[in-house]
Amino acid sequence: MDNNQPTNALHSDSDTTKLPLSNAEWRKILPAEVYAIAREKGTERAFTGKYYEHKEVGTYYCAACGHPLFNSNGKFESSCGWPSFFEPISKGSIIYAPDNTYGMKRTEVMCGRCKSHLGHVFDDGPPPTGLRYCINSVILDFDKAKKAEKNFTK
Ligand code: FE
Fold it and tell me: If you measure from the C-alpha of residue 112 to the centroid of ligand 1, how many angstroms do you get, rounded to a whole number?
């Protein structure tokens, strides 16, 4: 995995223990750009993320804690400028919350394990779900198909 946080002992793709850390604790663990998205609900600039046009087969994990979030077969090409998925890898992989900031009514999506901010979900996605999970590349780590198959058969 190409994550850049070797000191993050909480990082795991199988441990589902919730991680109720304070932001002060997260700040010590996460790279600054990950912290800004994950804990301060930032947004990377459109069309700049490394996974926006990424088409490899595999699994996307939370860059903060390693929790599996999306499969490449749930990803679709969207013109919005961020990696877009029509479904998460499993129901428990994502937490939802209303977000009424900036004068918009949106639904925020967070990591089901560590509650890091991922992005938002909109109802203008493709079939079969009609949903568009619009996710920041910065908070995703990608791993190729071998691990994806393992997760897919869970
Ligand atoms: Fe996480």
Answer: 7
